[in-house]
Design brief:
6 strands, single chain
Length: about 325
C-alpha cells in the first residue's frame, strides 16, 4: 500500500495573499512577547502563535467563530498559515473566544502599536501629514425593545441619560452626525499617516462623544493635521497646540480667517484618504467599549497589513523581536 504525505507548503499557491502577509509580519515572533499566556492553550494545545493567527484570519476574512472553525478544517491556506498539518485536528470555536479574552484589548493594542513602530523604523511611516476623521459603529442590538421597556416603566423617551438602564450594552450611546444621521452605538476615531496610507491611531468612544473631544485620543506628535470642520473647534485646536501640530482643518463659514480657496485645496488633499473609512466595518461584533475597541484595533491591523503588502513593504521584524 502506498502512503502519500502531502506538503502544505507545496499545495498553497505561491502568490496566495496569506503568503504575502507572512512576508511582512511574523506572528510567531509577536506571540513570543506574551509567554505568560501559554497556559491558556495548555502543554498539548495549539500554541499561542496559532491563536493569534486565528484571530487575524477571523478579522481578515470577516468570519464568525463557527465560520472560522469550518474554514480552518477545510481550507488548505488557512491550515498552512496557522501551521496545522493535514493529519492534525483544528481548533473548535471555543478556542477563538478563549484567545481573544486572554489577549484582551491591551495586548491587541500593543500588537497594533508594535507593527506601526516597526513601519516607522523602516521609514514607511513619516508622520509629516496626518488625516483624521471619525465614523459610526452601530451597536450589536436594536433599541426598539429597550424603548418599549423604558416607556412601560414611565420614562418619556429612551435617551443617553437612561439608556444604560435598559440596554444590554451599557457603554453604547446615541450619536448624531449632521442633522439626519442618528445611530446607537459607538464612534471610531482614526488618524491616517498620509505618506503611507496606514492607520496610525484608532480609538473608540461612545457615540455621543464629539469628533473634537475624541481627537485627543488620536492626535499625532507634530506635523500637519488635515480634518473637516469638526477639528477647527477649540478642543481639537488646543490639542494640536499641545502636541506641536499645525492645523489643516477646514474652517466653518462664519469663522474669522475663512479662505475658501485654501479650504478647497485642503479638501482635495484629504479626499483620497476618506475612502479608508468606507473599508472598515461599521457594526460592532461585541458588546461593551473594551471589546469594540479590540475590534477596532484588529480591523486596523488587518487594514495596515493589506496596505503594507500593496506598497511592497520589507519584513517588519528582524531576527529578534
Amino acid at each position: 500500500m502506498t502512503i502519500f504525505k502531502y506538503d502544505l507548503e507545496k499545495l498553497v499557491r505561491a502568490d496566495h495573499e496569506l503568503r504575502k502577509i507572512t512576508g511582512v509580519v511574523d506572528f510567531g515572533k509577536i506571540a513570543r512577547k506574551y509567554v505568560e499566556l501559554r497556559t491558556i492553550v495548555g502543554r498539548k494545545g495549539y500554541g499561542l502563535d496559532v491563536g493569534i493567527k486565528c484571530v487575524f484570519l477571523q478579522f481578515y476574512y470577516d468570519l464568525s467563530d463557527r465560520e472560522l472553525e469550518s474554514r480552518l478544517r477545510d481550507d488548505l491556506a488557512f491550515r498552512w498559515f496557522c501551521g496545522i498539518a493535514l493529519e492534525n485536528e483544528t481548533p473548535d470555536h471555543t478556542f477563538f473566544c478563549r484567545i481573544r479574552t486572554a489577549l484582551g484589548t491591551r495586548r491587541i493594542a500593543q500588537v497594533f502599536k508594535n507593527i506601526m513602530q516597526k513601519a516607522e523604523e523602516k521609514g514607511i511611516v513619516r508622520k509629516v501629514f496626518t488625516f483624521v476623521d471619525s465614523t459610526t459603529i452601530k451597536a450589536k442590538e436594536t433599541t426598539w425593545e429597550q424603548r418599549d421597556r423604558a416607556l412601560k416603566e414611565g420614562e418619556e423617551t429612551l435617551n443617553n441619560e437612561n439608556v444604560e438602564n435598559f440596554s444590554a450594552d451599557k457603554d453604547a450611546r446615541f450619536g448624531c452626525k449632521g442633522n439626519r444621521k442618528f445611530w446607537y452605538g459607538y464612534k471610531r476615531h482614526q488618524s491616517v499617516d498620509m505618506g503611507s496610507g496606514l492607520i496610525d491611531k484608532v480609538a473608540v468612544t461612545p457615540a455621543n462623544v464629539s469628533d473634537q473631544d475624541g481627537f485627543k485620543h488620536i492626535c499625532p506628535e507634530g506635523g500637519m493635521v488635515f480634518g473637516d470642520k469638526a477639528y477647527c473647534l477649540r478642543p481639537a485646536q488646543q490639542e494640536m497646540r499641545i502636541h506641536g501640530c499645525h492645523s489643516g482643518a477646514i474652517l466653518k463659514d462664519n469663522m474669522r480667517g475663512k479662505n475658501r480657496d485654501k479650504d478647497r485645496w485642503l479638501a482635495k488633499v484629504r479626499a483620497p484618504f476618506e475612502g479608508i473609512f468606507s473599508k472598515i466595518e461599521k457594526r460592532a461584533r461585541y458588546r461593551g467599549l473594551a471589546k469594540v475597541q479590540l475590534q477596532a484595533f484588529m480591523e486596523a491591523i488587518v487594514f495596515n497589513l493589506k496596505r503594507l503588502v500593496v506598497i511592497g513593504s520589507p519584513p517588519l521584524f528582524a531576527a529578534r523581536f
